[in-house]
Amino acid sequence: MLDTNKMDATLRALSDPTRRAMLARLAQGEATVSELAEPVAISQPAISRHVKVLLEAGLVEQSIDGARRPCRLAAGGLRELDAYLDMLRHALERNYDRLDRLLQAQKDKRKKHP
Questions:
Q1: Considering only CA atoms, which of 90, 86, 18 is closest in space to residue 53?
Q2: What is the pTM of this model?
Q3: CB of 51 within 8 A of CB of 33?
Q4: What share of the chain is helix, strand, coil (3-state, %, to 5)?
Q5: Whose CA is closest to 71, among 90, 92, 91, 57?
Q6: Which of 21, 32, 83, 89 has the fewest CB atoms found within 10 Å of its own CB?
Q7: pLDDT tens for each residue of the chain, 114 residues long
């Protein structure tokens, strides 16, 4: 069963373009909060709030390495969303398969009774 609270947190986190850009950066490898702040024109506290949202959504992990706090993508961070999208994908495929069968039956019927 899907954890809708987890999925809601994931969707909320992904709804912001700054957070999506941060995730894209982390897809290239781990980065500190300062490194994540470099390409965007917002304050360090604002970046920290974005990191917090990503952490709470389970999309990012942060470790402590001395004074550094590197962030990285969390393994399985998109699991709930992926399961939900997979369920929708399968439902759509079943609908298209039914439509294909219906259209084929109509085509076959027209061939028999022109």
A1: 18
A2: 0.78
A3: yes
A4: 65, 10, 30
A5: 57
A6: 89
A7: 677 888 899 999 999 999 999 999 999 999 998 899 888 888 888 999 999 999 999 999 999 888 888 999 999 898 888 888 999 999 999 999 899 889 988 888 888 876
Query: Where do the domains of the chain lie?
Result: 4-112
Question: Residue written as tokens 């402590």?
Answer: 64
Please list the alpha-helical segments (H only) found in 4-113.
Answer: 4-14, 17-26, 33-37, 44-56, 79-112
Res 28: pLDDT: 95
Q: Please, what sign has the CA dihedral across residues 12, 35, 67, 43?
A: negative
The answer to whether the beta carbons of residues 26 and 60 sit under 8 Å apart is yes
Structure tokens that stand for 26 in this block: 């982390």
Which CATH architecture is the domain 4-112 placed in?
Answer: Orthogonal Bundle (1.10)
DSSP letter at 74 equals: P
Gap between the Cα atoms of 28 and 14, Å rounded: 17
Distance separating alpha carbons of residues 114 and 104, to the nearest angstrom: 15
